[in-house]
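Notes from hallway chat w/ T.B., transcribed later so I don't forget. T.B. wanted the structure written out for a chain they're using in a teaching module, and asked if we could keep both sequence and structure tokens in one place. Agreed to drop them here.
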Amino acid sequence: MVHFTVEEENLVCVYYKADRHRTMGRMTAALPDLGGDMRELAQRTVRKLEAMSDADFEDMRFLFTDE
């Protein structure tokens, strides 16, 4: 099972779109507009999304956490 940090989970919430592939697509499309640390966070999150199955993604509960 893939584990996400709070920051990664929040990023998934921002770019969430119906399924894993669409979510990855939205996040990947935003990469050119992201700088430094945010781009690194997004790339790491996309890699984790790629590593999981569609079924695992559907079973996950991504909750935005305001720290």
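Follow-up for T.B.: The chain has one domain: 6-59. Might be a good example for the class.
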